[in-house]
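We modelled the chain as a single entity of 749 amino acids. Its sequence is:
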Amino acid sequence: MAALTTGAIAAGTALLLLALTVSPALHARADRTAWTNQGSGAAQSVLVMLDSPITHTIISTSTDHYRDSRIDVVVLAGSGRGAPVPPGMKSLPAPGEVLVSPALAALLRTAPELNGRYGRVVGPIDDGLLPGPDALVAVRGVRAADAGVDGIAVTGFPLHGDVLKLTGVVRLLLLLGAAAMLAPIMLLVALATRLSAATRDRRLATLRLVGATTGQIARLAAAESLLGGVGGVLTGILLFFAIRPLATHVTYDGGRWFTSDLNPGLPGFAAVLVAVPLVTAATTQFTLARVIHSPLGVSRRTTPKPVRVWRLVPLIVAVPALGVVLSADAGGGHGRLVLAAFLILLATLLYAGPWLTRAVGLALARSGGVARLLAGRHLADDPRSGFRAIAGVLLAILIVTMFAAARPAAAESLRDTKVTGVQDGTAQAKIFAATPAASARLLQDVRAIDGVANATLVYEGRIQDGSDPANVWIGNCTEIVAATRLASVPCGKAPVLVATDRAHLLRTHGTALEIGDVWGAQVVPLGRPPPPPGTSIDRLRLRPIATALMPTRSGIDVPGLIVSPDVFGQQINKLRPTLLVLRYDTQSALERVRTLVVQQVPGGSVSTRASNFEGYSSDVRKLYGVLIIATLGAFAVAALGLVVAVATGLLQRRRPFALLRAAGTPLRTLQRTALLTAGAPLAAQALLAATLGALVGRWTVTSAGQSDQPSWTALLLPTAAGLAIAAVILYSAMPMVRRATDTEETRFE
């Protein structure tokens, strides 16, 4: 039993330490990548104008892809000798040179299509500049004129970054899930302490009978529990270091973690090293009353104070209160209030649990049968200990059901049809940094690639339509349709085609529509003076003209209007195309297009349906993957707590069980009694936990403005799985009944 106690405390300690590493890991990653996030508050103090005489470095970032892999590309250009260098980097790469992360270097060795895409590899990127060990990052050196189009000039690089702040349903689920997952860990530590106390009751009672004072017993128990707690904590720290390399594979917001990221720091280690032994000592003192006041054993133990039905009142109040708080938090501004309300709900559930356990015990006692009678009377007599055995599993069921109820909201947020409208087998190259002549050369090179069926240039713009602007594509309609695989577009009917959901834009009767967000023909670096008047424009007027309707297509990357360039006459020469759309037939052709775009247009990128969907949803899906792992961990902790609780219950009842067995009660009946003592209240209250989890999950996603409803299967499956796991654990613990009822326990000398 001592080994089980130490193991339980060690497991709880290791999990607590892992939980304490989350915030330090996020901050460590934010600090390592701060040098690329020039929009952060830390970077604003070092921004200068591009034409400033102060020595500076220009930095810009973009995203590239190779098949299913995302590659972060950082462009750097110094204004002269002594230009600032990111921390950990010896010097800036020269134009045509590239530094690559270790993971990208490994990919380059196996992907010949990537050779030369970013330049000549001259060295690795230090780990201190990377999000994680599997990050694909390329740092390119280019000319200052090329980097300045979309780059920012800085005189230094920030050393500290801001952790990404989550919003909406994801933020709420993380907030509530973190609070709920820590509860089973704390329960496990408390149960392990009670198990240790149960094993030393006999020794302390003997000392009490031979004359030890109450204070001596208390001090001895405290010292013993502190030593045992410290031993469990130290073992847990070793276990933490053993499992930490495995925990680095739990990816989120930048891939895997460096092992050094998962470090709770000295305050975390100190807090656990002090708190867990103190909890064990306090729990031990709480359980000493029976030994001190009744050292002869359980025969003289008084029945605990009964639990009353009014324990349900706080739970009945806390449930709707949480719903009201979540409804009021639709804007996401009262996270602490939501967390407090949820913690109150958990506390009231734990407070009401003993009364519900007693009700189950009374029902069992009246149902007939020896095992049911014994189990029922024990639960009715001491419902608190009966509930402690199952509390961790109930919390785990609540957590998993909460996530299951929110799962449709996650699925809704990940539907690619709401994010990307580009068709499979097509791609869009962002080339706003290219001059009209450079984009024309790029178009010719792309069309020459074997496997590219169609390609054309597009002038992009937007018409502000309330809070939902309409994308405007100006270009050859026939070529656009062929390159984007758009169907049912009547190109020959009119020079202006409008999607049916934008038809109200045509009801402007005599008033010209203003197209904004267009790009002038001259490429002007940020911070430089604008081009001379008359050589460039930043908006167009679309006057009433013949129009036709085309089908509406959802997505942020499809046009709401397709306009022929002829509509604007010579004005089109004052613009530059910013988008190259194409249709490809092979993956190899797509990779060659990406290489051309990256090489010829610094800061350019090529997106497809898959990459758009991945870029929008990958972090969210990774987060839900983390939540799934965390819920499995919660079940594992709850399962271990259930084993500890069953063992504690058997130790506390070993003498009456042994006497019953000596009197002729079959071992199978005693095993059924132990099984019912834990299983009956668990089965009865699992439905309540699942219902509360479903309510919290639904209220959470509703407060985020989403409405998809979960299926009954999605809600009932976690409950059924949890009960099945608990049943297996309880059955596996039944051999302990034989050992606990050994005839040695019937000796009274």
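As a brief sanity check on the tokenised model: Residues 1-33+170-302 form one domain. The longest strand covers residues 452-463.
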